[in-house]
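Recap from last week: sequence in, structure out.
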Amino acid sequence: MKATDKKHCLAAAVILAAAFAPATWSQQVAAGGSGDAPGNYGMIVKTGAGYTDNVERVSDNGTSSLLGIVGLEFQARKETGRLQLTGGLDLSLLHYFDAVRDADQVVGGGNVRARYEISEDRFFWTLEDRWTQVREDFRLPTSPNNRQNLNYLTTGPDFRWRFTPAMDLSAELRYSQRDSGGDTQLNSQSYLGRLLLTRTLSQRASLSLVGSAEQFKIDDVPAGAQSPFFGAQQDFDRREYFLRWLSGTSRTNLSIEGGVSEIDGASRNDSGPLLRVAVRRQLTRSLTLNVSGARQFAVTGEVQRDFRLNETLDLSDDLVLPAAEAYEQTQARADLEFSRPRTAATLSYVLTQEDYTFAAQFERETTDIQASVLRRLNPRSELRLRLGRTDDKIKGQPYNVSDNYIGLGFLWRTTRAISFSVAVDQRDRSGGVFSDDYKELYGSVQIRYSPFGPDTGIESSIDPTGSR
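Predicted structure tokens:
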């Protein structure tokens, strides 16, 4: 692993650790936070063994291997009068005893979100860092030989001026950096300025007029390292002008953004409607529905799903193109959540369409369906079932991939600090045209040590060739 990659692996942990005073950290963890600085913290050290019958995820003659696993999980939430901070980290070192190459792998991901109030209700500073792993060659499945790190850092100040109790003006300034290490067209920097004029209509409703301008600077890539499909990428600007409506009741939250978005670059000038909608409705005490949709100019590496502790990397999480140029994205999503004291379940459906002007032959449509059921068998044990299917089409090629996944995990807390977990996964991918069809069976056995509190998570998959 490169030195820069190791820095990205540790970035989230360093930021999280810096937020807590060393003298009181363990006491706050054990107590779930203090009265002056409420928060929730947890850490798990894990070790075990695994087996996969297809390390490199190839269609024929896959390499099987036993694995040694050592890992660390860390979660934190801290809220004070001025600081709001949340973060998670999930890293595993995998040693492939029988693999042909890349015998040692570090896999995982993490994120940190922080907002600090410097001057009361007037001046804030925000920071967000997301580190994940994606495919280096988008035509092939994620595997030990087809994985690269992607770090997305954004930070900057927020300013607020209140004209009246019901009217205020906010200004947001952001610097963002996308870095996957080495010479790659994923690396870029951007500078964003946004103004929001907000009218509060009631305690639960507001209307904002928003305008933003963002400038993207693509890192120089040597000619030999440029993508053979897309050539050199160019700097560009993105502008958005829209109205934002926020409202909420005891059971329903609604967010609507509608307006115009524009792209301005050396080889592309385009504009189109901007629409983002999100609705959260509590149907019953146990059932909640989330529906969202968007039409926007998105940027590769910018709209990835958030890091999710203990969950696998799905095909729809991957970057489709090694480029930083904007593309037109249309997305619709629905999530159904069920929660009872001993049972939790989720069902999600996502439809995404990506249209590329600079590479129309790779316009993509993805459909993703996932389900998860967690059942607590007793106070010390729980069982989780995950299954999903992703259909991925690239319009300009005979590429119509179906990726099916099913995973089963069991967790048993033998003591307050020690847990035992078993996981089995099956993946089946077909329909590709780049030698990317494969089948894989993976299983693992782990011992998990939680020194500051009970193990509250269940790991249904470590997935050595595709986990976060």
